[in-house]
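User: Structure tokens for this complex, please. No commentary.
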Amino acid sequence: DAMVIQNPRYQVTQFGKPVTLSCSQTLNHNVMYWYQQKSSQAPKLLFHYYDKDFNNEADTPDNFQSRRPNTSFCFLDIRSPGLGDAAMYLCATSKGGIANEKLFFGSGTQLSVL
Amino acid sequence: GQQLNQSPQSMFIQEGEDVSMNCTSSSIFNTWLWYKQDPGEGPVLLIALYKAGELTSNGRLTAQFGITRKDSFLNISASIPSDVGIYFCAGQKRSDYGQNFVFGPGTRLSVLP
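Assistant:
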């Protein structure tokens, strides 16, 4: 019954080697988000898509990019991972444009950088 | 930027005790969401609140939307070991385009048998 699905659950990459994390949703939500979470801190928003419109947070490094080819899928690309990019990456969705919003998270991808 | 504060930062309680935690802000929010996160997992939505003064329950959990719209409370009754985890609050202000959710730093709950 998973509604927001992230793959893989664990990803190991090498310093500087590009990596892509994927997220899919079965909720038909308009908005998809990518968060970075370190050491049980609060999730930090990197960017989000409202339909096809991309919204980048001001402090998100250029090293992080995203693609949303269709409603169901969204990808996070890290072009040149550094050691500081090791973290849990969380995908989330919300309906968008309604009063009583809810935000649903996937199980996350734990990224390790060697 | 917008910030949410959560207290306590962490708490240790005996199994069977009731728990209370809160989330405060200097800004007004239209929505409050409460999440629980287990290690290595994504946050799971527990309760959503949309009206000032609203009180909502989900099993042993009860949450309230503060009258001032700047705070929210989460109570857990008769705690059990599986309540262990980090509890995050999130507030939302509606915007015309996309939806911005602001997260608190979390309350880490430990339940002692």
